[in-house]
Amino acid sequence: MAHELIDSELLALLRSVDTPTVCNAIEVAQGKRGFSQFTRGTMVCSAPQSGPLVGFAKTAKIAALSPPNEDKEIIKNRRMDYYRYMSEVSGAFNCSYRR
Prior knowledge:
Blueprint: H1 2-5, H2 8-15, H3 19-30, E1 56-61, H4 72-87, E2 93-98
Parallel strand pairs: 1-2
């Protein structure tokens, strides 16, 4: 999927720089700070020997502080919609969650 949407030259460029550099470049291009609602904590790579990963991210916002109080069928349908959304991807991707 990534190779269909991004040419190999851009993929090589993205692999050659770190994430903060890419984020800084996006902010400069947009002329504003734009990443204030993303992860602020320290990120730890689980496989540093694997090298840079370039791909697409699927995101979801999940509220789980208290049990849902809707009808069970509504809850079931919402969960199934979420699983369908997360499964509809080909190629490398990363999932991120925000609470």
